[in-house]
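Entry type: protein chain
Record version: 2
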Amino acid sequence: MFTKQNLLATLAGFAVIFLLGYAIWGIALADYFAGHSLNNVMKDPPNLGMVALSNLIAAFALSSLYGKWARGVHSGKEGFQFGAWIGVFTGFGIGLLWFATAELSDLTGTLVEGVIEVIFYGIVGAVIALVYKKVGA
């Protein structure tokens, strides 16, 4: 679990989750999602320390799961597929559950969020896989 591959992949995954996540949800699509939000539950300002901690934990979990899932076969394609399935789980599985039980977003926003999470986690998975491949070689 605390191998060199896993720890370096965790750091790379953390950087991608934190920076790309901010670029997507904090900048590029902030206005779009504001228009599809039913209730503003966002903290102002958000606690960036906790955001970073949560991203680090998520990256470690993803990297650890990927290491077991890949079974020694590492490629960007395999990593993207792994991450995309995580995105399906979070974006559509959890997203539609939230849509059904809470007044956070309309259906369009929820579905767009699902698509974005599939792509986002696909990219994160690809980065993690490429670090595993590079460090393991």
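Comment: The CA atoms of residues 7 and 133 lie 13 Å apart.
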